[in-house]
Structures are given as C-alpha cells and as structure tokens.
Amino acid sequence: MSTVAAVVVTYNRKDKLTTVLDHVLAQTRRPEWIVVVNNASTDGTDQVLKEYEQIDGVVVVSLSENTGGAGGFATGMNKSYELGADFIWIMDDDCYANSDALEELLNGHSKAEEAMGMPLPYACSLVKWVDGNICEMNNPGTTWDWGKLIAKGQENVLVTHCSFVSVLFPRWALTKFGLPLTEYFIWFDDQEYTLRITKAGPGVQVLRSVVVHDLGVNRGVNFGDANASNLWKFEYGARNESSFRLHHENPVAWLKFLYRLAQGLRGGNVPWSIRAKLFRKAIEGITFNPKPKMPRSVL
Amino acid sequence: MTDKPRNQKPTAVFEVLDDSGVGLSDGEALLDDRERRLVEGAANFYALAGPGQTFRFTVLRGPAGTMPALTDEERTTIEWEDDHEVVGSLVVRSLMHTIADHPPSDGLVDIAVDIGGPPAMINAYDQLKGVLGKARKAVRFLAPVQFDALRQFRTDMVERRGRDIPRKAPIRLSRGAAATPHGDTPAILFGLHWLELGGAERWAIDTIRLAKEAGFLPIVVTDRDSAHEWITRPELDGALVVPLTVPMDPKQESAFLNGLLSAYDVRGIHLHHCTWLYDKLPWIKSVRPEIPVVDSLHVLEWRTGGFVDISVRLSNMIDEHHVISPQLRDYLVGKHGMPEDKVVLATLAGLTTDGIAVGGADDVESNPFTVAFVGRFTQQKRPYLFLQLAAELKKNSPREVRFIIHGHGELAAEVNSLRARLGDAVELRGPDRPVSDTFRDSDVLVVSSDNEGLTLTSFEATAAGVPVVSADVGSQSSLIADDLLCPRHPYAFIQAAAARIRTMMTSPDQRKTWLDEQAAKAEAFAKLPRAEDWTRDLYRGWLK
Questions:
Q1: What b/e readout covers A196-212, taking b as 16+ CB neighbours within 10 angstroms?
Q2: What CA–CA distance (Å, rounded) separates B384 from B328?
Q3: Residues 6+ positions from B26 with CB-CB distance below 8 Å
C-alpha cells in the first residue's frame, strides 16, 4: 500500500494548529507520517508540538528562522520525501480537513489517472471558508477541458494550478520537478510550483475532498488591497509573479502582469508611494530567478 | 596427439585434442591459473560459436600491462606484434551439436589468442593520445584539485540540461520461431563488466554463487578489457566463463549466443553492467522472449547516465530492474516513469560488514585524531582530494592529527607523491592489510568521491562505529548524518569536511550525535529488502 506524509507548516498560530493536527490525526485514511514544520514560531508553538511529538508518526522539524510558507513547504516536502513517502499532502496551519479529505483525495487522484490514462502530478481539495462558501483565495485555475472527468461521471475537475491548502503530490512529481522555490518566501510559491509540475499533465481538484480554510476574511488576492501594513506581503507577490511571468512564461505575459498590477492598484486607489514600491519590486523580478532544489532520496 | 577426451567437466563445451604449454590437460604448463582460465574462456567462446569445429589456438603473452584479446575479430590473423611471446598451443574440438546440413570442415580453424601481460595498474590518463591528450594529462597531474573543480562545473552544466532517453521499441512476440531444441542443464546467463575488484562486481560474484547454490550453471560473459584478476575466484569454479573482447565478428556473436541458448536450458539473464549483453537483449528477446531478464544497477554516472541510462533505453527488453539505492529507484520511477512494480529496491547493506567489530570510537579523546580514506585510488574516488584535506587539517587543527590512506589503484603514483609532501602524518596501507584494521584505528572516515551509488565502506564504517564525512553524491544521504554531507565541488568539500572534522576533534559529544544519526539511518536502511534475499527468491522462481 502507498504511504502518505502530511505536511503542516506553522508560524505563530498555536491555537489553530492544534485543530489542524487533530483533524489530520482523525482522518479515515491516516497518514503514515505527519511532518510539522515550525517556522521559528515565537508564541509557544514548540511547547504545543512537544505533546504531539509523542504521537506515533508525528515528526517535528524546527527551523531556526522563519523561511516563509515557501521555505516551510519545501522543508516539509523534502523531509517527507526523505522518509520515503509515496504521496505528500500539504496544508497551512489554518486548514481543517474533513475526516475523509485524504481518503477522497487519494481515491479521486487514482480514478482521475485511470480515466485520463496518464499519471497526474497533483490533486487538491475543494476549499471552503468557515461559513461553507467557497474560499475565494484558494480557487484553482482550470484547464480548457476542465469538465472532462465530470463527463465521465467523476466529481473531479482538471486544473492548471492551485494554492497550498490541501494538495496531494505523488512522489514522482518531486523527483521530476524538485521542490517549491524557497526564495519566493511567501506568495505565488504555490502557483509557481503547481504550474511547474503541470508540465507533466493537469492536476485534479477532487470535489469530494473538502477542507475548511479558517481565514479572517473571505477575499481573494487583489493588489488593490495593498496598504502600509500588508505591503511586505504584496511586495513578495509583485516580485515573485513578475519573475515567474518573465522567466517561465514570456515577455508578453510579463507585460500583461505589469498592466494587471497597474489596473489593480488604480482600482483600489492605492497611495502612489505604495504603487511605486510595488513596481520597484516587480522590476526586481527581472534579475530574480531562483532555481528549484531537488529532494534527497534517503529511504 | 594426446589421448582424448581430456576435458570432462559437466559444463565442457569442447574437448582437448592436444595441449602444449597451456595446462588444460596433464602436460607441462607455462601459464598460471589466471592465464589458463582466460584461454579456457576463449575456447568456450569458439566452441559455442563453431559447433563441431576443431580449433587450434596459438597462445600469445604480451608485455606487462597489456590486456587480453580473446574473441575479437582480429583473432583469426596469424601474425602478431614483435613483443608477444608464444606460450601455448592448444587444439580443441567443439562438443556442440551443429544444425548445419553439412558436416563442419575437417580443417583446423586457427585462432591466435592473446592473454595479455601480467596485470599492472594502467592509468587512464596515460592512454590519452595526441597533443590535446598530453596537455590534458599534464594539467590533470600538475593541478589535480583545480582540474577537478573544472570537471565539476562541467558536470553541473551537463546535468542541468537533463537527458531524454529514447526507448527501444518493445518485442511483440510471445514466442520465437523454434530453430533448435535447447539443452537440459538449467543455466543463468550473467553479463559482467569485468572480473576485477569493484562494488558492482562484488555483488555480481555473489549472485553467481547464489545461482550455483540454487542448482544453476552460471554462464558468465564480460565485455570490458581487463586482466580479469578475479577469474580464479572460487565462486567461478564450475561456471562457464567467457571473457569477451570486442569488436567481434557479427556472425560469431549470433553463433555464440545460439550456441549458448541451444546447449543449455537458459532460465534467466542477469545483467551486471555489461554493455555487450545489453545490446544483444533485443535479439535475445526476439528469439527467446520467454527468458526473463533482470539487471542490477548501482551508480548513476554524471554526464552520461552510464549503465542506468542504457538500462532505461532497453527497458522494454528487461522484466525487472534491481536497484541498490533509493536514489536509483526514484530516478527510474520518478524521472523516467517506469512502473513501480518493475523497479525492485533491494540493498547491499551488510554485504561486506562481516568481521568488522565496533572499535573506532574508543579512543576518540586520545591524541592523535585519526582521519581515514578507504577505497580504490581512482579518479572517481578522488584520493588527491583526501590528501588535500589532510594538508588543510595538518596546517590547522585543534589537535594532533594523523591520516591513513588505505587502498590501491591506477592513481597510486600520484597518491605516493602527494603523500610524500605531508611527511609522516599520512600512513599508506595496501590491500595486504584488512580494512577492519583501518576502521579500528580511525576516528572518522572520509568519502571524497566525485560520484557513488552507496559506498560499501560507509556500511563498514557504521558497523565499526566510525562516523563518515562524505561528499553528497549518489545515495550517500541514505546513510550519512545530514551535517556530514559535504558539497561535491572540491574547494567547498575541503572547507566543509575540514570544519566538521575539527568540530569532532574538540567535541566528542557532537561526534557521537552524528554517529548516532548515522547509526539510526543505517538501521532504517537495513529494514529495506536485501538484495541477497530478493535474488535467492528470484532464482528459485526460475527453477520452476
């Protein structure tokens, strides 16, 4: 039977983290390993994790500095790969998986592969917000023939990219394409990675696998929301997406991104000083072009 | 002529009609056992390729270091180099049946086999020809570490590009048209690189032993020029050994394989790094698709992929790929999309650890601190890098330090010369000394290789309680503590390895932590299926 490692990346969210881990531990198909990456939390997360570490299969990786979501996921996925996992299931520290979320992901992925007649590089869950509506931030992009599997009676949608909130990767995807780009730190690391591995074939969103994303507000990413307090995140977003569009797509895609950035900032009436900072970061993307690291085969 | 038949072994494919100097019959022998087995190997080849024919072998011996030439297309020439002496003359008749509708010629077929000279270490760089070759050799030996740095950059560039490997189209037949019945003796055909010291060869020889234990006749072919010093090993007693030298006459290649397949009941083929046999698989699978084929893979070569990529190319002809490391499993399944059930991970853990006692850690706090290298002196193992590391540690260490470099090989002259510069601090040990002595005397083992699969010395060091500092290559990460994996590039390797070893010198606790991590990894690794068990079961299945 295939083995699964769940990966949870956490930073200063010890209250939600326990709920996340309890949901993972209560899965109908319990993962062989639960790898928790503590991204140098300072709120006592380490104490909470000490208790969980006693549970069979729980592996805690404590980092000495915060490496962002990108670094955390790369670390956790690499650790899972080293442990010998056949599948790696990753999520944030505010993602509550329904009890059958993993079982449905594995089933859905397997059935989709069978119907498509090819290996598929990932399967993601349907992500809901706490009120039961779709979580706007975690809506995957679909392929042009997204309904292909629905036409065959499956509750699966073909996708081109998704966020790192309940995604299942087969081991081979990491062997072939490496790990997420640690250097992205935060934002767009999930899109870059899933777009990268979509070169091997589409991903699949398994609608029967459901998780709840416990965000403060249910709103997608929009550059028009940038302000002085959240600027740091938008700066990573501008640099990372600029780099991706230019280096992994083409100059036209890059120009279209700059246009979209300008439109978004104007639509949100973002102050000029913030607009300038974000454009400066987008320009930084011209020289920012990190390369993926490959995981190590240990077992 | 002497009485016949002299060669009465159950595996005999020829009978000796007359023998002068070779020693296959009872007369005076001018050849040693290794040389005699080489001649026997050549006679096996021609007897199988020429059913019913009579051959006269003129046996030549070349100067030291020259390689045997036994089966290549030049062997029918009855002239030879001035420096080759004639040391034997042998007439044999093939005992193989012929399917020809006319009897074979009564005339003799004359073959001049060259058994080469006494084995000698040949440096591959000595064989470089032309001005460019000489220049390359000069740079390599004047500045080995700098030259290595350039090699590593080249490796980076080539590896970054990746490799697409076209696959040989599959054979669609479930049976080949029958030409001849086959013999009754159950046999396994083994393809080896050569019969010399090496990790892959050690495992290959073990599988030959397992085949014999299971009741098979091992048929062993090799395709690489070599003095075949292991041809006298007891595991090969009773086996049919054919050290091929290429290029061969294509007609003889098929005749030889036809001879094998009709003389014996070949139940399976096991490849261990043998290009010639890999290349013949499509034909073999066309005429005998029912014969199962497996291969054992050890190391993914930088830049070319080596035998692993050859195996990928011919995967449609191979029923199962046996790999000895998780890295190779992931390469075949993950990178090349092979079905998981076609790739078998079965490790060589414990293959060479018998007789190694824990002892290395006992005197860690006493002076001097001992740093060891155990391995062949070859480019792949980079002994010069170990000696550069030794120079660095000798110059700057918190404690008195000494070094043991244990091995032999084609870079022995370079090792001697570099070692001389370091004075008495470096002790050189040869193959006459058991490696268990070196592990007992060591505080840390260094693996400085440019490339590896999974070093047997790392298993041995773990059994001896010695931590290993290793280049992060191949599947070394399966055994070595994370902090003790160092970059492959030479300068970065020396810097990282020296820092870790200095830490060990001053902190026995840290050394123990790393050793414990290494032991834990070894324990987890040991739980993976073992190659010997898998092979034994496989061969048992082939008997049914």
A1: bbbebbbbbbbebbbbb
A2: 28
A3: B6
Decide if A82 and B477 are in contact by the 8 Å CB cutoff. Answer: yes
Buried b / exposed e over A71-80, threshold 16 CB at 10 Å, is bbbbbbbbbb
Residues 478-517 of B with CB under 8 A from A: 478
- The neighbour count for residue B391, using CB atoms within 10 Å, is 18
Using CA atoms, how far apart are residues A164 and A162, in angstroms rounded to an integer?
7
* CA distances for B282 relative to B44, B259, B312, angstroms: 23, 17, 13
Least confident interval from A69-83, B268-282, B361-375: B361-375
Using CA atoms, how far apart are residues B227 and B195, in angstroms rounded to an integer? 8
- Residue pLDDT, tens place only, B473-491: 988 999 999 999 999 999 9
pTM reported for the whole predicted model: 0.89
Distance (Å) from the C-alpha of residue B497 to the closest C-alpha of chain A? 20
Nearest to B219 by CA among B238, B234, B200: B238
Q: Which residues pair with B241 in a beta bridge?
A: B220
Query: Is A172 touching B (CB cutoff 8 A)?
Result: yes
Q: Which residues of A touch B473 (CB under 8 A)?
A: none
Residue in B closest to A297 by C-alpha: B327
**Chain A: closest CA distance from residue B206 (Å):** 24
DSSP string computed for A35-62? EEEE-S-SSSHHHHHHHHTTSTTEEEEE
Rounded distance between C-alpha atoms, residue A199 and residue B408, angstroms: 48
B237 or B181, which is more confident: B237
CB contact set of A203 (below 8 Å; sequence gap of 6+): A120, A121, A122, A123, A124, A140, A158, A159, A160, A161, A162, A194, A197
Q: How many CB atoms lie within 10 A of CB B413?
A: 12
